[in-house]
Description:
By secondary structure, the chain is α/β, with parallel strands linked by helices. Among the domains are: 10-139, no CATH class; 411-482, Orthogonal Bundle (Arc Repressor Mutant, subunit A), CATH 1.10.10.10; 594-699, no CATH class. The protein is 35% helix and 15% strand. The chain has 20 helices and 21 strands. Helix 3 (72-95) packs across helix 5. The radius of gyration is 33 Å and the shape is elongated.
Amino acid sequence: MKAIKRKDTAEDAKRKFREAAMNGDTEDLYFPGPMDVYNELIKKGKFRTIKELDTDLEDVWYFNGHIYERAEEYVRTNAHALFMTMYQDMQAQIETIPRNQRNDFVQNLSGRIENALHNGPRESQINEVLAMIRRTTFTDASEMNPPGYIPFKNGLLDINKRTLSSFTPELFYTYQVDANFLDKKVTLLDTPLFHAQLNQVFYHRDIPLILTYFGYCLYPDLPIHKVLGIFGRERVGKGTLGRVLQGIITHGFGSFNLARILTADRFQFTGIEGKNVLVDFELKRKFKRGTVKDWSTFNNLFGQDVLNVEPKGREAQDRTSKAKGIVIGNLPIFSVDDAAASERWLPVVTRSKKPGRLMPNVDKEIVNKEGDQIATLLVRVLFGLIDRGWVFPGQLSSESTIELMEKLADPVENFIDEYTEPVEGAAVEVNKAYETFESWCAEKGITPIAAQTFKKNFGWTYPKKKYHRGKETGYEFLGCALTVSEDPEDEERGSEYQDHFKGGTAEKSQENRENGFRGNGYRQFQHVSLTFTRDPARKSIKDHAHKLELGDFDSKKPENKAPQEIRGSSNLQNDPVPDSQLEEPESRPNPVDSDVMVNSAEGKDQEQPGEIKTEAVNPISVEDGDMVIKQLANLGYHPDPKCGPSMDGKKYQIGVIEPSDGQRRVTLMGFMKESGFRQVKSSNLAMLAFEASIRRDQE
Length: 699
């Protein structure tokens, strides 16, 4: 049988050309092949390939001078350019040989070069270059994003020494802070646009937690397994802050879909490789009937457990994620029915009202003007988190977190908070209330609960009573008016927010530095639990779990600063906090909004529906109020850590997370009434607010 002639490869052809050239004076002429391009690429840069089984299409990364980026596009682009450059160089050498002196080899090579310049390199040649890089640069996935440094635009920030060092290809970082680290003290007063956006979206007491978690997103490891949940009404600016973080961490920022993580059987983790932050910008709230949510995958992803990552068309691989998680969603959220998953959450509830005037591309303006300052501030807040032993300011206890998440997932609670107002003498017909609830659910994109369940749950807040009007009979909820609730601070805050984006920032800079954002001084920039003093005997105890007080930034190795107060360069307050303003919380920190709303002057003498009637002639002492807080904690309730005298010293204010059990709520109301407190309106759906007058001799 006649043997089949094997087709010469590019390497075979080049070898023959060189052998033929040895017989003449054309030994430097050859036809460029994939090996020549590969050698040039390896000389110019550093590559790493993640090991995978059962595939020859592993992920390739290249060092761009700062960090490692995905290399497939880079290799294809540069390989094509190198092929064309080599063809042109070879053609230029051939042109130096007179035509009458060109032998068969030169003429053959000239024809091939002209053809290659006309058609360009073949796809198989480009793929062969990429395959050579893969085969020679294998790296284990565990080397990705090692602890110890944070990549900035102007260098690697050494977390231990807290100084900048030069970039090196020996460290396999796939994320980078797209800003320059400033070696100076930076506070919120140095970022007026960012500060205005924070105040537009969040209550003041929640800002330290938000900043701390944003700073945690810069860290290359996952020492504490927490996910930040930002929940609130639609169009209040939640997503804008997420995009600000995305603008600061352009490399290593990724999106994910929590609903897909909980319900997908395969491919849930596709695309998360090399990410340091994962954000779900729009939490899905509606699932098909009978859908089972598997929270174990959520726990594995944000618990640094081994993940079974299965890219499409490839064999599953074992991977470990170091990505921090942020979930942004509108109320109500879906229920978290897994105890381990509830432990992962750091929930924050936003303000209620939308901005008075939407500003286009606010996130880009903030990043462009204040990116370096924001990144430096976040790093310094991160250092404070490290020095405190990874304790977030205002972190809820496990029990309080579960209770709050249940309320945020309760559609009736959210409907009551958003669409009702307690008004004495008012009443709403039961069917009318349910029809309004159904319309509200349609706007939210959620499935309404059954009418019977709605009436039962709604009746916990507004009592139901049968009415008779002539021949008409029916049921109505007493003391209830259907309306749209407003945030009492929104009008003032909205005008301030817009002023910061009208070009007036420079003129107000000095005023802001002296008075704080609204003239409240440093109190605006510290956790609210630090603003009140209770028991004088406890004045010397420091609240390190709440205080965002960072030490001087220097090149020394950080000491264990948690047991002692750190003075000198706070990033969230203008002045150091005196010892008399620091306290140890009676229970686990509770950052849920508990701003106590005092009734207006014309309404002080009237008992509102659901309020506790207490005569003003029975004032209490500060010690009495402190004792009530301790008794609440002993009874198993969850008082707000910011409880204490009001700013003017005339009222003693207490906030308590509303119990989910109706009987415990009744017991709480009776206890507070016997203690001399009356209920006042709370601006937060999950909190009950009470106040009592303080005796004049103690004001």
